[in-house]
């Protein structure tokens, strides 16, 4: 990453950590590095830290999130979705392992892990850890995320949580 972009990212992080509202002109062209940074910070703040007070810094008011066959519409609904997930998997962590940006979209591959402490989609609490992978695509509008699509390898998580029996037999 070029030093001037690193400095911009560091400055933005510094200002956001001090709850300074950033107002960027809607016609400013952000670099792909900046869009990737916004996605990283958005997921880190909401999923990893559970900081939902500032979701509007990252998304448009009409933000829609498509996940697990549902359309979560608006910031309030998204925050409720995240709060629910974090109550079921209180140690949930999303780690982005790769991202690409093109035409106002950021696509990322990630690892998600956590411990299931409450019932989830008919699976009783197991207190077991899971780790699986997923992909997301975020569409930007006026330098904020307008829409997000996410797909997670839920079968791997279900096997690890004991909700699905694996027929795979390990061989030596």
Describe the fold and architecture.
The structure is a single chain. The protein has 172 residues and is α+β, with helices and mostly antiparallel strands. It has one domain: Nuclear Transport Factor 2, Chain: A. The protein has helices spanning 3-17, 32-48, 75-88, 154-161, and strands at residues 59-67, 70-73, 93-102, 105-115, 129-141, 144-152. The protein has a six-stranded mixed beta sheet with strand order 2-1-6-5-4-3. The longest helix is centred in the N-terminal third of the chain and has 17 residues, at 32-48.
Summarize this, please?
Helix content is 31%, strand content 33%. With 172 residues, the chain is an alpha+beta fold.
Task: Tell me the layout of helices and strands.
Blueprint: H1 3-17, H2 32-48, E1 59-67, E2 70-73, H3 75-88, E3 93-102, E4 105-115, E5 129-141, E6 144-152, H4 154-161
Parallel strand pairs: 1-6
Antiparallel strand pairs: 1-2, 3-4, 4-5, 5-6
Tell me, briefly, the overall form: globular
Structural class, judged by helices and strands? alpha+beta
Quaternary status of these chains?
single chain
| Low-confidence parts | 1-7, 20-29
Strand content: 25-35%
Write down the overall mean pLDDT: 85
Radius of gyration using CA atoms only: 17 Å
Number of H/I helices: 4
The total of beta strands comes to 6
How far apart, in Å, are the first and last alpha carbons? 44 Å
Specify the helix fraction band.
Answer: 25-40%
What sequence of helices (H) and strands (E) makes up the elements? HHEEHEEEEH
How many domains, as an integer?
Answer: 1
Provide the CATH architecture.
Roll
Strand order of the largest sheet: 2-1-6-5-4-3
**CATH domain topology:** Nuclear Transport Factor 2, Chain: A
Largest sheet: 6 strands, mixed
CATH class category name: Alpha Beta
């Amino acid at each position: 990453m070029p030093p001037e972009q690193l400095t911009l990212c560091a400055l933005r992080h510094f200002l956001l950590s001090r709850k300074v509202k950033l107002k960027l002109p809607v016609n400013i062209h952000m670099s792909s590095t900046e869009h990737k940074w916004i996605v990283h910070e958005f997921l880190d703040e909401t999923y990893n830290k559970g900081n939902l007070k500032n979701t509007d810094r990252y998304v448009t008011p009409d933000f829609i999130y498509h996940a697990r066959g549902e359309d979560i519409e608006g910031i309030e609904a998204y925050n409720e979705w995240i709060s629910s997930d974090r109550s079921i998997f209180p140690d949930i962590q999303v780690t982005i392992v790769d991202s690409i940006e093109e035409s106002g979209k950021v696509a990322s591959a990630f690892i998600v892990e956590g411990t299931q402490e409450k019932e989830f989609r008919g699976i009783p609490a197991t207190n077991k850890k899971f780790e699986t992978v997923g992909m997301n695509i975020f569409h930007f509008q006026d330098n904020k995320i307008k829409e997000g699509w996410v797909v997670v390898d839920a079968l791997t998580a279900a096997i690890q949580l004991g909700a699905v029996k694996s027929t795979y037999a390990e061989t030596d």
